[in-house]
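Collaborator request, handled under Task 6.
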Amino acid sequence: MSEHKGYKGKIHDFLISNKVDIGDLVKVTSELTYSGILMPRYESGDENHIVLKLKSGYNIGIEVEKIEKIEKIGEGQSKIESSETVEKDKKLPKILLLSTGGTIASKVDYRTGAVTPALSASELYEAVPEIAKIANVDAEVLFSEYSENLQPQHWFEIAKKLDSVAESDYTGIIIAHGTDTMHYTSSFLSFALSGFPIPIALVGSQRSSDRPSSDAALNLIAATKFLTESKTKGIYVIMHNDSSDDAIACHKGTRVRKNHTSKRGAFETVGDNPAFIISEDKILKNMNEEFFKSDKYEPKLNLDSKVALVKYHPGYDPRQIKDLADLGFGAIIFEGTGLGHVGNTMYEVIKHAKEQGLFLGMTSQCIDGRVSMTVYDSGRDLLELGIVPLENMIPETALVKAMWAYGNSSNADEIKELMLRDIASEFSFE
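Structure tokens returned to the collaborator:
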């Protein structure tokens, strides 16, 4: 097996001639002198650069033509070493850690040089031994996927696993999850597991654990602290509150969006403050009402993914709506403009979709505020056509709720009632 994965051509020959392998600690003399671990390259990378991971945690590329000398100065590690077994304190509460993948459960792939979801849940526990002082953790891997690869069927599998431990002695449950689609998963679990008797925290990280600015450890520690001390129920997303390490935000799982691509404080509660703020010495509660509107645990795990989220824009081809109706979709959630509008070019196909029995719901493209379809004639026209305004429900949450409602009922009136019923704080009344 090659020890120079991702390197080819002249750069491959260069490394061989200097007896340097991936994972070695090397000293490179170029325009400047650098010391670091020789990293693998992407298989599609060029033949002109080597990649070093510096002590700071960041990677740099160095042009081979400018290298005067490269020498091996130590052995590197190609894998994470297991830590010593953590002794469990029987006096501490128990939590369950389920891993689904994502950056929080990632390490460097020595095939491509990419960060990949490869860590096990137990390795996560080992990587953050501080949580052993807060709780006894049982760890289990459900999937090892980037969150963009998770599909509604994965939500169902997560819900089944959670339902199986609803009557356990766990104080709470952590789900390690990629950040890109975490708010979709948290929404589904909120509806499918309404009234779940212990708190559930979805936790991710924006930056992998090999970076000095990683948020993985602090997010996990905060989630563990929250689950063991908050004495609450609900489905929450726990991530950095902002760019600092001073506070971690706990967001309601149905009122949260990822609003930045890379910041550690990427997640925000829409229309309100986070439900809780977690700091080193306290947990500040901001929410005034219970997350679940019913105390009774009533799991409804089914879903039907034949639901569409349509973002209306000028020039939108109405035939796409007709296609959805003709393909047997059960519901369409419109992400309309302003107070909840779409152009009059859509009216005929909306009428057709309604005649086909689809549930048609209206949300807004605006980040904040409520749908109000009685203000303008266009809104009133859409009401006449049978579109249901969904107040200030987040479009992604509305999509997931419609999948859940459509999966648990085939009755149009019941689906409408479910969509308008506040089940898991999906409506904000602030």
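The cover message to the collaborator said: "Residues 275 and 287 are 5 Å apart (CA to CA). The chain has three domains: 9-74, 94-285, 307-420. Please let us know whether this matches your experimental observations."
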